[in-house]
């Protein structure tokens, strides 16, 4: 089976009564969406309720045809419909409540995200699920300036993930470090963030390889923190290694590569100013 595509679907798909749901094959307009995923043509209509029942079995929200994740507003509605189903096992319900909290956090709806995540945390004993909740809660707390609280959540999540076998836990632990970087960045502690990112890069290279996407993302974030800390010479050296590899693997039109190109221009501009060339 092909992997789920990480890019999101078009935002805010409009409701339409001129379509047939590709799951139930009915034209009932209530909750019938057009272009909720990557499907086009006659097969791009789907009821939210039908999507919910389909996704409940997969325990994840994505289109079974195009393998694209639903856009965040659509995903939120699907999650809520799954939670309203009577015949969903409790462990599935908890998983979808956690994912709902994550979707709300990504939309910046922190109060709603906090409520869903805290409720899910009180209902699960699963180590990975608890860690996911604590990681997302830390993001919410970081945005609100509650750095100490965020740090405590990350400490608890890190202890939980450390109990997993290395092959299962290293990515979660790397994610925790990324969350800590976000805390340092929010506090303006860019040097500390850069040092932590160096450790993330080393772990990613050891476990996934130099060409892995996670490794390139970590290196890109490292460049940004070096730039913010004023160490543009180190940022430039990192970019010299990273840009050719990113171009070869991702291509020149990939959003991550384009972000790196913007970052390169920022670093180059700062370097020129530091050398007095901008006068």
Fold topology:
Elements: E1 5-8, E2 32-34, E3 45-47, H1 48-58, E4 68-69, H2 72-84, H3 90-106, H4 110-121, H5 127-143, H6 147-161, H7 166-187, H8 190-208, H9 213-228, H10 232-250, H11 255-274
Parallel strand pairs: 1-4
Antiparallel strand pairs: 2-3
Assembly type: single chain
Report strand %. under 5%
Query: What is the radius of gyration computed over CA atoms, rounded to a whole number of angstroms?
Result: 21 Å
> How much helical structure, as a percent, in the residues?
55-70%
How many β strands by DSSP? 4
Largest sheet: 2 strands, parallel
- Contiguous runs where pLDDT drops below 50 for at least 5 residues: 1-17
Q: Using the alpha-carbon principal axes, give the shape.
A: globular
Helix-strand pattern: EEEHEHHHHHHHHHH
Strand order of the largest sheet: 1-4
Q: Structural class, from secondary structure content?
A: mainly alpha
User: Count of helices?
Assistant: 11
Report how far the terminal alpha carbons are from each other: 57 Å
Indicate the mean pLDDT: 86
């Amino acid at each position: 089976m092909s992997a789920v595509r990480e890019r999101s679907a078009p935002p805010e798909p409009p409701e339409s009564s001129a379509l047939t749901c590709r799951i139930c094959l009915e034209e009932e307009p209530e909750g019938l969406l057009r272009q909720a995923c990557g499907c086009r043509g006659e097969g791009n209509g789907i009821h939210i309720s039908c999507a919910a029942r389909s996704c409940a079995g997969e325990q994840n929200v994505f289109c079974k045809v195009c393998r694209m994740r639903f856009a965040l507003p659509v995903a939120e509605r699907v999650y809520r419909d799954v939670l309203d189903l009577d015949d969903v096992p409790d462990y599935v319900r908890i998983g979808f409540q956690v994912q709902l909290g994550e979707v709300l956090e990504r939309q910046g709806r922190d109060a709603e995200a906090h409520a869903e995540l805290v409720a899910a945390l009180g209902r699960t004993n699963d180590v990975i699920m608890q860690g996911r909740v604590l990681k997302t809660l830390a993001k919410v707390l970081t945005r609100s300036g509650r750095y100490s609280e965020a740090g405590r959540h990350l400490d608890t999540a890190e202890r939980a993930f450390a109990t997993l076998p290395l092959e299962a836990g290293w990515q979660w632990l790397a994610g925790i470090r990324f969350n800590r970087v976000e805390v340092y960045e929010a506090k303006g502690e860019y040097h500390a963030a850069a040092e932590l990112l160096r450790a993330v890069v080393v772990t990613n290279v050891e476990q996934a390889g130099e060409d892995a996407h996670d490794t390139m993302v970590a290196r890109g974030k490292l460049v940004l923190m070096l730039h913010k800390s004023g160490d543009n010479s180190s940022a430039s050296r990192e970019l010299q290694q990273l840009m050719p590899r990113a171009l070869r693997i991702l291509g020149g039109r990939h959003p991550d590569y384009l972000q790196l190109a913007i970052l390169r221009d920022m670093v180059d501009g700062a370097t020129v100013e530091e050398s007095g060339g901008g006068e």
